[in-house]
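Researcher: Next entry in the queue.
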Amino acid sequence: MKRMGKKAGMTVICLISVFLLIFMIWCFISSGEIRTYDNEKSLSEKFVMDINGSPNGFFINSQNTDNPVLLFVSSGPGTDDYFLTDQYKDMNLESEFTVVYWDYRDMGIAYDKSFDTKKITLENILGDTEAVTEYLKTRFGKNKIFIMGFSGGTHISLLAARKHPENYHALINMAQCVTDGAERDALMYEFMKKIFTARKDSRSLSKLEGSIRKNEDGRIICRNWYEFVDLVHKAGGGTIKDRSEFEGVVLPILLCRCYTIKEKLQYVPAMKMYRKTPFTEELEGVDYRTSVTSLEIPAYFISGERDYNCPWKLVEEYCEIIDAPDKEFFLIPDAAHSPLWENPSDTCDILRRIKERTLHE
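Model: Structure for this entry, 361 residues:
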């Protein structure tokens, strides 16, 4: 019995030692550091700043601050995306732009659980967008900047470009949210059904059928958006092509250097909090094909050819509908929802051409 007790004790000690070692390694890699450069005019900054009485977070990367400024509006709504820039080292957009990744009020690194979430409204966030834009114009000595929304952030960037076109050279939206209606759900459903049928994945097919309902006219409506998106990831059309949400999102967040332990631990609470804000409620039922049909500045839309989180066919249709001085839809191969990081070569080349095309006209 004593021998068994000693063995059990040693096992416990070994397990504790392994846990402590893993935790120490996790702490070491969670330094909160971001990309840096040796160039004389380069810039690497990470900070939280008060904007209109609310905390806002910023990651700024630039190899040359003389370059045009690009305001990158985070996804979600309420999801910080800088971990993808940390994860995908080949994405070097900062060689073409001074890239400002913006965590809008009370999200990402700016999360404060004591902040009054009733103040997270569309009107307030658009007011913050204007204030952030003016700050960047003044700081970097620019008359105008570029604005680029990603996924849930495209709501903000599109509406900001419509409201204050004088501030921006162009709108560049990646994975544009067009509508949350039955057409979107049907495109997602058909994609997943095709994939799961080809795989003979009866379990996923069963989950898929259980995640939807059909109206009397036969239209498909998803019952639970987050369950639906989880299945999209499983089918290969989610955040990162052919990767589950754990592989493409959770694991990179846990292993990235750009967030501290505290920032990693508050990542999910901040994201979940945004789902229950007035801002998110205001976005329900949108269809920009009827509500925003023209812009006074050039508008460019980028989608991955496997993106069924924000189905690319709807984005292509929206680009055809919208009236703008210049516009184009770009479909990126070998990418799903995040072409900037999944296929950085093609996407950054397109962004470089958009910059030259816009500034030299």
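Model: The chain has a mean pLDDT of 91.
Researcher: Noted, moving on.
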